[in-house]
Fold:
Amino acid sequence: MNEINISRVSEFVLLGLSSSQELQPFFFVIFLILYTVILLGNFLIILTVTSDACLHTPMYFLLANLSFTDICVASFATPKMIADFLVEHKTISFEACLVQMFFLHLFSSGEMVLLVSMAYDRYVAICKPLHYMTIMSRHVCVSLVLISWCVGLIHTTVQMSFTVNLPFCGPNQVDSFFCDLPLVTKLACKDTYIVSLLIVANSGFLSMISFILLAISYTVILNTVRKHSTASMAKARATMTAHIAVVTLYLGPCIFIYLWPFNSYSVNKVLAVFYTIFTPILNPVIYTLRNKEVKAAMSKLKSRYLKTGQVFAAIRNVHFLETK
Structure:
């Protein structure tokens, strides 16, 4: 044990998205823009939902929490990835690597459960409209959000228990732009076959269960919508199709990464970018920015802040004239 402690690695080297130094400035600009869009878009949705009383409904409450989770998913590794584009030697301390893995599984698994909760909300709204407000009460909505965080915490705690005590005393190169369990466990100085199976079983089980529940929910919803030909049902059908596309883009890479052989590193990098960068951008667009109610609320919010700005400008002008 003392020998392992003495030789334990103190940092890992992140190989990043590409080894080409010529592409680093290009990646820096692109991902900085994408990350800024993620922050602004999701914060705008949270501000809009919380400030407009018309959006204080179960669906928008869950959407605001999804936006917050998207910010968390995009922020656990993206800022460091952007900063690493400016340096040639990309390193991360052993402790920071563990923190990244902890928050990755906390936020991603919590988002899976939250997506299932949102599908359940749409199921109740479309299939049981007369009982919607009774079933989706404020207490139920808060409970669903808390359950998502509890499941995320349990999941990531179990995952980290497989890794935190592994001996790392030799290789320290992680072929990605952040630390992830399948990649880090392969660097341990012992046979990690059983640990890898446990990691796959844990993450794969949660991803597959979430996907199955979502598939069942949306199948029932689309079947219900198909039996009606009203304009509202046509709109619901279009909305559900968009939701299914976003869910597939999020859960698909997660399932692929944890159920496919671990040697597909180049593919895994692309998929990791999808669920850490592109999905947090797509969620605001698909779930809210295409919604007329949200657009109207944003217009009112814009008008309110413009009026406030005009009032402050008038006060400053009056104060300036008085002092002059």
The CA atoms of residues 13 and 89 lie 8 Å apart. Residues 94-127 form the longest helix (34 residues). Residues 1-6 have pLDDT under 50 and may be disordered.
